[in-house]
Amino acid sequence: MNILFIGDVFSSSGREIINLKLKDLVKKYKVDFIIANGENISHGKGINNNHYNFLKEQGINVITSGNHIFRQKDTCNFINEVDDLLRPHNMSSYLPGKGSYLYNCNNKKIRVTNLMGRMFMDPVNNPYESLDSILENDNSDIHIVDFHAEATAEKAAFAFNYDGKITALLGTHTHVQTADEQILEKGTAFITDVGMTGPLNSIIGVNPDEVILKEKTGLQAKFIPSSNSGQLCGVLLKISSNNKVEEIIRIKEK
């Protein structure tokens, strides 16, 4: 079983590079199942119904998200109607949407869970308590967790705590791909951040000019998504017939 996880898809450049590269990647790596973080796909903030449909048309099985999941007005109108768009499980239970769901692929039960960290992030519930509650009744063969968090230490601590209890802990949110992909001692695959599928020569997806203005002067500036050509960042998980991760491969395609 080969699972491709695509890092934060950012605005039009992210959509364009997926349209350009994804089919070839699926063929090259014989991908069976695709997960993509789509929380920045719509103009850099959130995911609307049109862009949800775009990702599904590209063959993506599950879409995860993060702190920007509800930044587009229409998300609340359709997220409860679908099972393949997740919001962080440890957000308020009053919010619509699911944070974890079980999917079937090639006679395997694949659970995908979306969680958010708490350091330097909007307030959410304890992610350890959330994942523990999911694991109590989980009967999946493969369990992939998208941990959407800012701090590298928080991501690493979470991964080590659940080593051997989940298949993979894949970090998202910082938009910078890290070079620390590894299989931990008890078998869980981990990377601090999968990276951004979006524009090159940008500051985590937006034009540098507005960011520089704010940093230099302290003035408020509207960040504008860059329209530069993009790159696709992701990881491939090669999983054996007995559901063990054999290899985690970092991917960066321009």
UniProtKB/TrEMBL annotation:
<feature type="binding site">
    <location>
        <position position="8"/>
    </location>
    <ligand>
        <name>Fe cation 1</name>
    </ligand>
</feature>
<feature type="active site" description="Proton donor">
    <location>
        <position position="68"/>
    </location>
</feature>
<feature type="binding site">
    <location>
        <position position="173"/>
    </location>
    <ligand>
        <name>Fe cation 2</name>
    </ligand>
</feature>
<dbReference type="InterPro" id="IPR005235">
    <property type="entry name" value="YmdB-like"/>
</dbReference>
<dbReference type="GO" id="GO:0004113">
    <property type="term" value="F:2',3'-cyclic-nucleotide 3'-phosphodiesterase activity"/>
</dbReference>
<feature type="binding site">
    <location>
        <position position="148"/>
    </location>
    <ligand>
        <name>Fe cation 2</name>
    </ligand>
</feature>
<feature type="binding site">
    <location>
        <position position="39"/>
    </location>
    <ligand>
        <name>Fe cation 2</name>
    </ligand>
</feature>
<feature type="binding site">
    <location>
        <position position="40"/>
    </location>
    <ligand>
        <name>Fe cation 1</name>
    </ligand>
</feature>
<feature type="binding site">
    <location>
        <position position="39"/>
    </location>
    <ligand>
        <name>Fe cation 1</name>
    </ligand>
</feature>
<feature type="binding site">
    <location>
        <position position="175"/>
    </location>
    <ligand>
        <name>Fe cation 1</name>
    </ligand>
</feature>
<protein>
    <submittedName>
        <fullName>Putative metallophosphatase</fullName>
    </submittedName>
</protein>
<dbReference type="GO" id="GO:0046872">
    <property type="term" value="F:metal ion binding"/>
</dbReference>
<keyword id="KW-0479">Metal-binding</keyword>
<dbReference type="InterPro" id="IPR029052">
    <property type="entry name" value="Metallo-depent_PP-like"/>
</dbReference>
<feature type="binding site">
    <location>
        <position position="67"/>
    </location>
    <ligand>
        <name>Fe cation 2</name>
    </ligand>
</feature>
<dbReference type="Pfam" id="PF13277">
    <property type="entry name" value="YmdB"/>
</dbReference>
